[in-house]
Design a protein that fits this description.
The protein has about 475 residues and is of the alpha+beta class. It has helices at about 20-45, 105-115, 125-140, 145-175, 180, 255-265; strands at about 50, 55, 60-70, 70-75, 80-85, 90, 95-100, 185-190, 195, 200, 225, 230, 235-240, 245-250, 265-270, 275-285, 290-295, 310-315, 320-325, 330-340, 345, 350-355, 365-370, 370-375, 380-385, 395, 405, 410-415, 425, 430-435, 435-440, 455. Helices cover about 20% and strands about 35% of the residues. The strands form eight sheets. Strands 3-14-17-16-15-18 form a six-stranded antiparallel beta barrel. A five-stranded antiparallel sheet has the order 24-25-20-28-29, with no helix packed on it. β21 and β22 form a beta hairpin.
């Protein structure tokens, strides 16, 4: 019987040789390149564009001021039921009827039963009523709900105008009626001024009596008089503002107050209606020693006759131009070249005639195209790109043998325009600047235009660098 043959134990696994072909090599090369590009793009700082637009800088100089006027509180001589006939905010002359006092209450019954006729508001009155409603809606703050009641009585005073004409006719009939004439007291104004129907205890306030605590309004209470029907003798019935000159006192920083006092006048905007006006300025000390700015006006008193606290904005900067971020602004050096040495190339491009040397050492001239970045009209000099010229280079005056050696530099403030796909310096003339933005002059010869694109972060690019 044949013996079973044992398998050899020295068998080794055959390694298949690596079969490299051109396709695999190209694939590996592309993969390495893609990975490199990804890592390189992550490390490169992004160049963000910024679109230039027209605008202005709104500096935050908004304050709340206390209105100080010449105000006289008129009190009642008799007790009884009161009816008002002069519209709040209306100017009355001496002797004009302001209100009546009915000792028995029969006047109200008579007026309700009398035929008052049909009344309609004019377009002007409707516009005023709409403006009052819109102003309240935009200025309403839920934390100051009491302003709703002020608005209510303000509207009541406005609507009072509608009924005044026919009501006055009814009052005339009552005056001729023997049975009621003795029961109704006709109360007329003792002087001329603006009528208002509220008090707050600040009628005798002077600028020097103002303190920081008054602006907290913790203890402030505005008492409306229009909602009162029955009065007693000595009660306040209305208030008369007798002078068109009035003041606003606002808390300010010492440095700003000194600056505005030196200017003498300042332009302000009333936030209630966006009206603008000029005021004389005076820095004062309040009763607590803090600085306050007193703003004196000779108009607009009637507009704010029903307000004790008035919100305003000091318009310290009114410049309008191209608005750009400060991060886009850079300084760049340029060579100064007299205007007489500038010339035009065959294609109309700007440039200079540069003196050169050939290999044999002979002198020859060549037109060199250069970009112009500014022109100094006073010194008659052009600002030329420093990359195209060099210190010590000679340029030749056109149609002459006179030479000028490049030797002087000057810097310009500007931004990098990227409309052409590369960083192109453009000079700017800054009109006003704050911590974030600058307003620059528009429509300048070597400057920017509206809707230009500039580099947002100027530190991220170099001059003439291709961006895309």
């Amino acid at each position: 019987m044949a013996q079973r043959q044992q398998p050899p134990n020295n068998i080794r696994k055959y390694r298949k040789p690596l079969n490299l072909n051109i396709g695999m090599i190209i694939f590996v090369a592309i993969l390495v390149y893609v990975i490199y590009c990804i890592f390189a793009s992550l490390q490169v700082e992004r160049i963000s564009p910024y679109e230039v637009k027209e605008g202005s800088l709104a500096t935050n100089y908004t304050y709340r001021g206390i209105a100080i006027r010449q105000e006289s509180i008129i009190t009642a001589d008799q007790a009884g039921y009161i009816n008002y006939y002069a519209r709040e905010g209306e100017r009355v002359a001496c002797g004009d009827l302001v209100y009546t006092v009915d000792e028995t209450g029969r006047l109200n019954d008579y007026l309700q039963s009398a035929d008052m006729g049909d009344n309609a508001l004019s377009e002007r009155e409707l516009a005023e009523l709409r403006a009052e409603v819109v102003g309240f809606i935009h200025g309403f703050e839920p934390t100051k709900f009491d302003s709703t009641y002020n608005f209510k009585y303000s509207l009541k005073g406005t609507v009072m105008r509608l009924a005044t004409a026919n009501m006055m006719q009814s009052i005339s009939d009552i005056n001729n009626s023997s049975d009621m004439a003795d029961m109704v007291n006709f109360c007329r104004s003792s002087g001329s001024g603006i009528v208002t129907y509220w008090t707050d205890g600040y009628e005798q306030l002077t600028p020097e009596m103002v303190s920081t605590a008054l602006f907290e309004e913790k203890d402030y209470e505005k008492k409306q008089l229009l909602g009162v029907d029955l009065i007693t003798q000595g009660d306040a019935v209305y208030k008369l503002s007798t002078n068109e000159n009035w003041s606003l006192v606002v808390p300010v920083e010492e440095e700003l107050g000194v600056t505005l006092q030196e200017k003498g006048v300042v332009k302000i905007r009333f936030l209630k209606n966006q009206y603008e006006s000029w005021a004389n300025t005076k820095l004062i000390r309040g009763s607590d020693g803090n600085p306050f700015l007193q703003l004196d006006f000779n108009n607009s008193m009637v507009t704010f006759a029903t307000d004790r606290f008035v919100d305003i904005e000091l318009i310290l900067n009114d410049e309008v131009g191209l608005k750009i971020p400060n991060s886009s602004i850079v300084q760049k050096d340029f060579y100064l070249v007299p205007a007489d040495y500038m010339t035009k190339g065959a294609d109309g491009s700007d440039g200079v005639i540069l003196e050169r040397y050939n290999e044999e050492g002979n002198i020859y001239s060549e037109f060199l195209e250069t970009s112009v970045y500014n022109y100094d009209e006073e010194n008659k000099e052009y600002y030329l790109d420093s990359a195209a010229l060099a210190i010590g280079a000679n340029i030749i005056k056109p149609d002459s043998q006179e030479k000028y050696t490049i030797s002087r530099k000057a810097s310009l403030t500007g931004v990098y325009n990227m409309n052409k796909g590369y960083a192109d310096f453009r000079q700017i003339n800054i009109l006003y600047q704050n911590e974030e933005y600058a307003i620059v002059k528009s429509n300048t010869r070597y400057g920017l235009n509206v809707y230009d694109y500039i580099v947002l972060e100027a530190a991220a690019v170099n001059d003439s660098q291709f961006i895309y």
